[in-house]
Amino acid sequence: MTSALESSRQEDQVVLLESVPHPAADAAEPFIVASDRRVILAYPIAESDFERFGPFDSDDDPFCAVLFPDTVFHRLGPPGDRDLDVHPLASQGLVAYSVHEVINSSLADELSAVASAGFAQRHFVITFQESTFECVASDYTVVGVYGAAEIASREAFSLVR
């Protein structure tokens, strides 16, 4: 017999978001700046995205900052790239060092029962070397790609005020 959670997981569809820079492998850890309803995630971007989101100086360590407004849930923690196969969405196409949106998200559906009405809730998943970021929010915006973590951090803090 299939449980309600298992059957709803089968509806989850993971799609890659190419408009967001890919996370770098073997780089600094991502960080979160959050207020009650806004989350900004900052992380180092993959070298393969330097040309697309640059230009950068040779001594830069590019970080991007992504804003998730109207957030009702977020977390940053395991699994990382080595054990990503244990994530419930791994069989739906979740891959390492990538940015995803989960269409028909069972998590977003569960949270809609307790969240404030009026916000369209979307489920996002970003995978890193040592962790996975997930959030349910109304949207996402790449607010900037910066030459260093310090600049991304300063911008992230200014956006949650």
For the residues shown, what is the average pLDDT? 87
* Helix percent band: 10-25%
SSE string: HEEEHEEEHEEEH
Residue stretches low in confidence (pLDDT < 50, at least 5 long) are 1-9
What is the number of E strands? Answer: 9
* Gyration radius over CA: 16 Å
Shape: globular
Report the major sheet.
5 strands, antiparallel
Q: By helix and strand content, what is the structural category?
A: alpha+beta
Number of domains: 1
Distance between the termini: 48 Å
Strand order of the largest sheet: 1-6-7-8-5
Number of distinct helices: 4
Estimated share of beta-strand residues: 25-35%
Task: Outline the structure in words.
The chain contains four helices and nine strands. It has 161 residues and is an alpha+beta fold. It has one domain. The strands form two sheets. The chain has a five-stranded antiparallel β-sheet with strand order 1-6-7-8-5, with helices on one face. It has a four-stranded antiparallel β-sheet with strand order 2-3-4-9, with helices on one face. The protein is globular, with a radius of gyration of 16 Å.
